[in-house]
Specification:
four-stranded parallel sheet; about 425 residues; single chain; alpha+beta; 4 domains
Length: about 425
């Protein structure tokens, strides 16, 4: 029998645990929410797991995979150098340029004044220009600032420098606009030479309905994303294969999970970003239907992924994230408040509940974070899955009316199905 240690501090770790435990070979899963190197190593030595899955971005960036491998552990996840595809936006964009992967135009800066001079020039040419200011390093999903005016751009340049080392270098990036613009997520598992893909997904990043408000770590998702229908081969050949092949050629084979954040603009596909791990909340909807994840991971570590197929079901899934009121800004007043109804949602057939910022005392749940939990519902189509997800959410509340969630998750695909 096999024990697995997962390094992750959020709902992603809960989903991975669920996926690993589907294998009859796995009898024990430990989740460590501490992601600093010393704690990771201490936990690994304490439990001596047969497999360690490093699933969190900051742990990958700090070189956890390299450290654990050097200590003799069997580890799944990309090396520190390979994880730069996520941990440095400048490295990632330049990698895309070297390997002819379509992406937005950008300019890097480490000077606030030079960036303001550049942005002033851009808006003098087009006062209605869409621009994004992006911190080079990791910022827990909050290091991308949208700008639609010169004043907003200047303010965001000043703000990006408050991200510390992550914002020391930043990008001024051209926003992509058109008549039809839509984002999507695609995920591949790789042994460094070959890869297999999972279902596509669509994240809902902003805190309020219809993509309004500041970016968050993700407020919900659905899978498969119908926007990618018919584009699968193109996405793989133009955006997945070049990364796996390019990383190997550059001496940093990518062994782990590759996340491709894409955008479709009037029929043209561009890369918004790459991540070096599963997305959250996307993992909730595309991995919940995979039956042989443990075998896929082992095939990667044995360099035999080409011999294994992804065993997935044909269901549609919708994830709705329950968050503390005030998230992603100040939600400190919610900490310690009681969460009601989770136990009822857990009993609904076809519904899974993954806890993130939740403390458990006996059978009572308390809020302890921004994103608290994920409700994941399955159905034969998007309409059935969404209805089931929101029916489950209807059972749940946070003491003092402190639960926040979007009510429009998967709205694009719902519109597609209703129109058809």
């Amino acid at each position: 029998m096999t024990s697995v240690l997962i390094i992750d501090s959020g709902a992603r770790g809960q989903v991975l645990s669920h996926a690993y435990l589907k294998s009859p070979e796995v009898n024990n899963v430990i989740i460590s929410k501490k992601t600093d190197l010393s704690s990771i190593l201490e936990t690994a030595k304490k439990h001596s797991p047969d497999l360690i899955d490093v699933a969190q971005d900051d742990a990958l960036d700090s070189g956890a995979v390299d450290l654990l491998q050097n200590q003799g552990f069997k580890v799944f996840g990309p090396s520190k150098n390979a994880a730069r595809i996520e941990s440095s936006k400048l490295f990632s964009r330049r990698f895309m340029q070297r390997h002819n992967i379509p992406c937005p135009d950008f300019e890097p800066f480490n000077s606030k004044q030079r960036a303001i001079d550049y942005i002033s020039y851009l808006y003098s040419q087009d006062p209605n220009k869409l621009v994004f200011i992006k911190a080079d390093g990791l910022c827990k999903g909050k290091g991308v600032l949208k700008c639609t005016t010169l004043a907003e751009a200047k303010a965001n340049i000043r703000k990006i420098k408050t991200f510390g080392d992550s914002g020391r270098i930043f990008l001024v990036e051209n926003g992509l606009t058109g008549r039809e613009v839509e984002e999507f997520s695609y995920f591949a598992i790789s042994d460094g030479k070959t890869y297999k893909v999972f279902k596509s997904a669509q994240d809902n990043k902003t805190v309020f309905n219809f993509d309004q408000g500041p970016n968050t770590g993700g407020m919900g998702s659905n899978s498969p994303a119908l926007v990618t229908s018919g584009l699968e081969k193109r996405i793989e050949s133009e955006f997945i294969s070049p990364v796996i092949e390019g990383m190997e050629k550059e001496g940093n084979p990518f062994i782990g999970i590759l996340y491709f954040g894409g955008i479709l603009v009037d029929g043209n596909i561009f890369a918004i970003e790459y991540n070096a791990r599963h997305g959250d909340p996307e993992i909730q909807v595309y991995l919940s239907g995979v039956e042989n994840y443990f075998h896929l991971v082992n095939a990667c570590l044995d360099e035999k992924l080409d011999e294994v197929k992804v065993e997935d079901d044909s269901k549609t899934r919708v994830c709705v994230v329950g968050a503390s009121r005030g998230y992603p800004n100040d939600y400190s007043q919610v900490k310690g408040k009681r969460i009601y109804g989770l136990e009822k949602a857990m009993k609904i057939p076809g519904v899974l509940v993954f806890k993130a910022g939740v403390d458990v005392e006996g059978e009572i749940f308390y809020a302890n974070g921004g994103r608290l939990f994920s409700i994941v519902a399955e159905g034969k189509n998007i309409l059935e899955a969404k209805q089931k997800a929101y029916s489950a959410m209807g059972y749940i509340s946070v003491e003092g009316n402190n639960l926040h969630y979007r009510t429009d998750i998967a709205w694009r695909d719902v519109e597609r199905v209703l129109k058809s």
